[in-house]
From TrEMBL:
Residues 75-173 form the M23ase beta-sheet core domain. GO terms for molecular function: metalloendopeptidase activity. Pfam families: Peptidase_M23. PANTHER family: MUREIN HYDROLASE ACTIVATOR ENVC, PEPTIDASE-RELATED. This is M23ase beta-sheet core domain-containing protein. InterPro entries: Cell_wall_metabolism_enzyme, Dup_hybrid_motif, M23ase_b-sheet_dom. It comes from Virgisporangium ochraceum.
């Protein structure tokens, strides 16, 4: 039996359409699943350090900017808030030119160097404005407290700090640390709180 080129093309098209449809169904099912229990998130900074958490009008609800209460922010270790799989590690937007040697250099766009982690149960965290390329790569498995990078001011950042988000089912939610809500909720006004890190369980290297 002779198979025409048209039939081969048609079969290939149908196969592609079915594959796309199956993928869409799988993604839809994942998105419709209710999120799992909240992981035991910790502050994404070194054990025992006290940091200021803040927000301001226009920052977006539940976004958190972290600044150390003592010492320089530049280069401080940024740690995984909880174990999971790295789903993004690289550049979000553009880097700009703000560095420790030129802190008033040109701003970039977006989050600059950043990391995103999937913690399972449709929970995710994001870490933005890192100083340099992340110390992890997409697909890496990380543990709570493992170093992801260092605090910087890349992207759309006015000063060295860590911008941090927790997301549940693709929606930002109030960050919780060590089993307690952070207190950073709406961005209707400028305000800050202080919290001390309990991110103390990781025994690997921290630079």
């Amino acid at each position: 039996m002779k198979i025409t080129r048209g039939r081969v093309v048609w079969t290939a098209v149908v196969t592609c359409v079915l594959a796309v449809a199956v993928t869409a169904v799988v993604v839809a099912v994942q998105l419709l699943r209710p999120p799992g229990p909240r992981p035991a998130f910790q502050l994404p900074v070194a054990c025992g350090e006290t940091w200021q958490l803040g927000t301001y009008p226009g920052h977006d609800d539940f976004d958190v900017d972290l600044f150390p209460t003592e010492g320089q922010a530049w280069g401080r270790p940024v740690l995984a808030s909880y174990a999971g799989e790295v789903t993004a590690a690289g550049v979000n937007g553009s880097l700009g030119g703000r560095t420790p040697d030129d802190p008033q250099g040109p701003r970039g766009r977006g989050g600059g160097y950043w990391v995103k982690i999937d913690h399972g149960g449709r929970w995710e965290t994001q870490y933005l404005h890192l100083l340099e390329p992340p110390m992890v790569e997409e697909g890496d498995r990380v543990e709570t407290g493992q170093q992801l990078g260092r605090v910087g001011s890349t992207g759309d950042s006015g000063a060295p700090h860590l911008h941090f988000e927790q997301r549940r089912g693709m929606r930002k939610v109030e960050t919780w640390f060590d089993g307690q809500p952070s207190g950073i909720t709406t961005d209707d006004r400028e305000y800050t709180v202080t919290r001390t890190s309990g991110n103390c369980g990781y025994s690997g290297p921290v630079e």
